[in-house]
C-alpha cells in the first residue's frame, strides 16, 4: 500500500474532482481570446454604423468629429486601465456591482443593479436591436422608408435569438461571440479599405476646411456617447480598447472620404449609404455584416449583465431566483430570461436616439462612481494587494471627465437625463424597504422563491462555492 502513495492520493481526489465537475455551478470557461471578443464585440455594436451622424451633427465639422472619436478612444483607454485595476483587485465575479459593493458599500451597489435591470440593459439592448432590425429590413425597401412595425418585429427576433443562445450554453454563447466579432471586424475592414484607397487617390475634398465650426455650442458637447466597458483581464481590456479606437477613427475617415458631410447627415444608416457608394453591386453585404455586428453587441451584453444580477442575488440584494442556474446547462437562466420582457417592452416603445440619451446618464454616472470608489479604496486601504495599478493621474482625469459628462448631460438634455436620474433615485426607497429592513410583502417574496417556478425553469442554487 505504501509503494504508490501519489497514485493513491490522486485516486482519492479524482471522485472529488468529478463530483465538483458534475455539481450545479457556473464554470469559468472564458479564455483570453473569448474575453477579447466579448469586449470588442460589445463595444463595436451599432454605434460606429449610426453614431457618426450624431457626432458630426453636434460637433459641427469633419475635423472636430474625428478629434471627438479619437479623444473618446483615449478616454476609453483610461477607463479600461481603471477597470483593469478594479478587476484584478476584486477578483470575485459581478463586475460593476462587486466594485461598488467593495468600495462604496451596499446602497450604490444595489442602485447599480436596480438601474441595470430595469433601465440600462433594456434600453441598450433595445437601441442595438433596433439598429439590427433597421439594417436587416431597410435594404429591401431602399430608397423608400421601411415599415416601423417590420423593423420592430425583426428586432424582437434578434433579441430572442441572443436570449436563447445565452440560455442554452456558456460555451455556445462564447463561440457565437468569437464568430460574430471576427465578422464585425471584417465589416470594419471592408469599410476602411475602399476609403483608404480613395484617400490615397487624392479624394480629399471633404477634409478641406475640416475644422470650420458654425453651430458648436456647450450643450452639444455631451451628445457624442461612448459605448459600454466590459472587464475581464488587463491584457484583454487594453488590447481591445486600442484596437477599437484605431478602427473607429479609420472607419470615420473612410466615411468622409466617400460621402460629403451633408450626405452623411441625411443618412439614418450611414454604413448602408457608404456601401451603395463604395461597392455598388455588393451593397447588400455591408448591411448584413452590420446586422451581425449588432447581434454580437447584444450577445455580449446579455452574457455579462445576468452574471452581475446573479452575484447581487447571491449577496442577498436581489431576488433569490436570480442566483439560480440551470441544473444541466449551467447557465444563469432566470437572470437572462427575466431581462427579455423588459427589453421587448422598451424596444416597442422607444426611438434609437432617445434610448441612447436615456441610458447614457446612468451608465456614465455609475462608471464615475466605480472609479471614484477605486480612488477612495486606495486611500483607505493603501496596503491592499493590487496586481495592476493604474497611474493616479489617469484615474483622476477619467473620474473627473465622467462626472463632467454627467453634469453636461443634465444641462444639454434635461428631459431624458432628468427622467434617468429620477428613475435611478427610485431605487433608494426600494433598497431600504426590501434589502436593509427586508419589509418586502410576503406575497412578493413567494413570487421570487416559488418552488413551482424553480421546477418550471429547472434551476437550483449552486452546489459548489465559486468565489
Task: Provide a concise account of the structure shown.
Keywords: Membrane, Transmembrane, Transmembrane helix. It contains 20 helices and 2 strands.
The rounded Rg comes to 23 Å
Q: Distance N terminus to C terminus?
A: 37 Å
CATH topology (fold) name: Amino acid/polyamine transporter I
Q: CATH first level: which class?
A: Mainly Alpha
Total helices: the number is: 20
Q: Provide the CATH superfamily.
A: Amino acid/polyamine transporter I
Spell the H/E element sequence. Answer: HHHHHHHHHHHHEHHHHHHHHE
Q: Categorize the overall geometry.
A: globular
Number of strands: 2
Low-confidence stretches: 1-12, 228-232
Largest sheet: 2 strands, antiparallel
> Please, what is the average pLDDT?
78
Q: Beta-sheet strand percentage?
A: under 5%
Structure characteristics:
467 residues; mainly alpha; Amino acid/polyamine transporter I; two-stranded antiparallel sheet; globular; AminoAcid_Transporter; membrane; transmembrane helix; L-amino acid transmembrane transporter activity
Can you walk me through this structure?
This protein is mainly alpha-helical and 467 residues long. It has a single domain (30-460), classed as Amino acid/polyamine transporter I (Up-down Bundle), CATH 1.20.1740. Helices cover 72% and strands 1% of the residues. It has helices spanning 5-22, 32-43, 47-59, 62-89, 96-103, 106-141, 148-168, 170-200, 234-258, 261-266, 270-278, 285-314, 333-337, 340-347, 352-380, 392-412, 414-425, 427-436, 442-448, 451-457, and strands at residues 325-326, 459-460. The chain has a two-stranded antiparallel ribbon.
Amino acid at each position: 500500500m505504501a509503494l504508490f502513495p501519489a497514485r493513491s492520493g490522486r485516486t482519492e481526489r479524482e471522485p472529488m474532482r468529478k463530483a465538483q465537475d458534475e455539481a450545479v455551478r457556473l464554470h469559468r470557461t472564458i479564455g483570453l481570446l473569448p474575453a477579447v471578443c466579448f469586449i470588442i464585440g460589445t463595444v463595436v455594436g451599432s454605434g460606429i454604423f449610426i453614431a457618426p451622424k450624431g457626432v458630426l451633427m453636434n460637433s459641427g465639422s469633419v475635423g472636430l468629429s474625428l478629434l471627438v472619436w479619437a479623444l473618446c478612444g483615449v478616454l476609453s483607454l483610461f477607463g479600461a486601465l481603471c477597470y483593469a485595476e478594479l478587476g484584478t483587485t476584486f477578483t470575485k465575479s459581478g463586475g460593476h456591482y462587486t466594485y461598488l459593493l467593495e468600495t462604496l458599500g451596499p446602497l450604490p451597489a444595489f442602485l447599480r443593479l436596480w438601474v441595470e435591470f430595469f433601465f440600462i440593459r433594456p434600453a441598450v439592448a433595445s437601441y442595438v436591436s433596433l439598429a439590427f432590425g433597421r439594417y436587416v429590413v431597410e435594404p429591401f425597401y431602399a430608397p423608400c422608408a421601411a415599415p416601423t412595425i417590420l423593423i420592430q418585429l425583426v428586432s424582437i427576433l434578434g433579441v430572442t435569438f441572443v436570449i436563447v443562445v445565452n440560455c442554452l450554453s456558456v460555451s455556445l454563447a462564447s463561440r457565437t461571440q468569437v464568430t460574430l466579432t471576427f465578422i464585425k471586424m471584417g465589416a470594419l475592414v471592408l469599410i476602411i479599405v475602399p476609403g483608404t484607397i480613395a484617400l490615397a487617390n487624392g479624394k480629399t475634398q471633404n477634409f478641406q476646411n475640416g475644422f470650420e465650426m458654425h453651430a458648436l455650442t456647450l450643450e452639444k458637447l455631451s451628445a457624442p456617447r461612448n459605448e459600454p466597458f466590459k472587464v475581464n483581464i488587463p491584457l484583454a481590456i487594453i488590447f481591445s480598447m486600442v484596437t477599437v479606437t484605431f478602427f473607429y477613427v479609420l472607419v470615420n475617415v473612410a466615411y468622409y472620404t466617400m460621402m460629403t458631410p451633408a450626405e452623411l447627415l441625411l443618412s439614418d444608416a450611414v454604413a448602408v449609404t457608404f456601401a451603395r457608394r463604395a461597392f455598388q453591386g455588393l451593397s447588400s453585404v455591408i448591411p448584413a455584416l452590420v446586422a451581425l455586428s449588432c447581434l454580437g453587441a447584444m450577445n455580449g451584453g446579455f452574457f455579462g449583465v445576468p452574471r452581475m444580477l446573479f452575484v447581487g442575488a447571491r449577496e442577498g440584494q436581489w431576488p433569490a431566483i436570480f442566483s439560480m442556474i440551470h441544473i444541466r446547462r449551467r447557465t444563469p437562466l432566470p437572470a437572462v430570461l427575466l431581462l427579455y420582457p423588459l427589453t421587448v417592452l422598451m424596444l416597442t416603445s422607444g426611438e434609437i436616439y432617445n434610448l441612447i440619451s436615456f441610458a447614457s446618464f446612468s451608465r456614465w454616472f455609475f462608471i464615475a462612481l466605480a472609479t471614484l470608489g477605486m480612488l477612495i479604496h486606495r486611500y483607505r486601504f493603501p496596503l491592499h494587494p493590487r496586481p495592476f495599478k493604474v497611474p493616479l493621474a489617469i484615474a483622476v482625469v477619467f473620474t473627473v471627465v465622467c462626472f463632467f459628462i454627467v453634469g453636461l448631460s443634465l444641462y444639454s438634455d434635461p428631459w431624458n437625463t432628468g427622467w434617468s436620474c429620477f428613475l435611478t433615485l427610485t431605487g433608494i426607497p426600494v433598497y431600504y424597504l426590501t434589502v436593509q429592513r427586508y419589509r418586502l410583502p410576503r406575497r412578493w417574496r413567494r413570487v421570487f422563491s416559488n418552488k413551482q417556478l424553480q421546477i418550471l425553469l429547472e434551476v437550483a442554487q449552486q452546489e459548489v462555492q465559486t468565489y
